[in-house]
């Protein structure tokens, strides 16, 4: 007998329920069910099968106001430019200041740092990285 959660989401586990447990005793099944490895696998299963609108980032985007959405679009566009043209992350700050002057938005208040540029680029690159795997 194998645990489908652990086989799929935690195949590196040393649990008998990954390789195949020959014992059908209820105590063994219950002890596996409360094990940390199984809980991690079960959580991974639940996260993988969430509807997109139930994910926190999607909920946050849905609830954003139009102005905030426009600012985020400008930040992502700037980050995309930096990533595509292989510019240093520190250019993100200067480009945001330029956008503030051009559009008179307060873009730079919360996201004006090279660390935020890295975060934006990470989220932009994520679908491309998944395609390569």
Tell me the helix content.
over 70%
For the sheet with most strands, the description reads: none
Q: Which stretches of 5+ consecutive residues score pLDDT under 50?
A: none
Overall mean pLDDT stands at 80
Number of helices: 9
Strand content: under 5%
Number of strands: 0
| Shape verdict | elongated
Quote the distance from N terminus to C terminus: 30 Å
**Total domain modules:** 2
How large is the radius of gyration? 22 Å
The SSE order reads HHHHHHHHH
The secondary structure category is mainly alpha
What does this structure look like?
By secondary structure, the chain is mainly alpha-helical. The chain folds into 2 domains: 4-49, no CATH class; 54-132. The chain contains 9 helices and no strands. It is elongated. The two termini are 30 Å apart. Pfam families: zf-C17orf113. Residues 1-42 form the C17orf113 probable zinc finger domain.
What brief labels describe this structure?
71% helix, 0% strand, elongated, Znf_C17orf113, C17orf113 probable zinc finger domain-containing protein, mainly alpha
What is the topological layout?
Blueprint: H1 4-9, H2 16-19, H3 26-33, H4 36-48, H5 56-63, H6 66-84, H7 91-103, H8 108-111, H9 114-132
Summarize this entry quickly.
The protein has helices at 4-9, 16-19, 26-33, 36-48, 56-63, 66-84, 91-103, 108-111, 114-132.
